[in-house]
Amino acid sequence: MLPASLTTGYQGRLLALLLLLLALGVVYLVVAAPLLELYAGRAAVLENRRMLVPRLKAAADELPELRASVAELRATAGARKVTLEGSSDAIASANLQSHIEELAASVGVTIGSTESLPVEVRGGYRAIGLRYTLSGPYETLVKLLVFGFRNNDKTAAAKS
Fold first, then answer.
1. Do 32 and 56 share a domain, yes or no?
2. Average pLDDT of span 54-76
């Protein structure tokens, strides 16, 4: 227990003031500081959302154009033939060889030799491999490799 002299007079008032300050500090630490921290966090979230608004509006404005591009690409991809025709691997390989011979002839490349590689199963498809020895001017070989095989159009290499 505190002596009776501490509860009255100047020392009592000083002790009461210290207890009041201690109580206010505890209230601040327990109630006010978490509320201020919560407020600051919410303010940061709002600022981030405000910064995102112009980007989201720009993305929303581009959406119809992007959808049209996707529809166009899907239509192009649907019309483009990406597989070889043939009832067996050998027939499909022969079709591929004839296609490559046509491309090579159209750009003036000479085929030295052709080697069939083993068929590989990849997903639902079977990959047919061919190894070629080509000869011709460097520019013509590059034209064949870049333009001829990129497009499935037989005349693409000749047009380039």
1. yes
2. 90
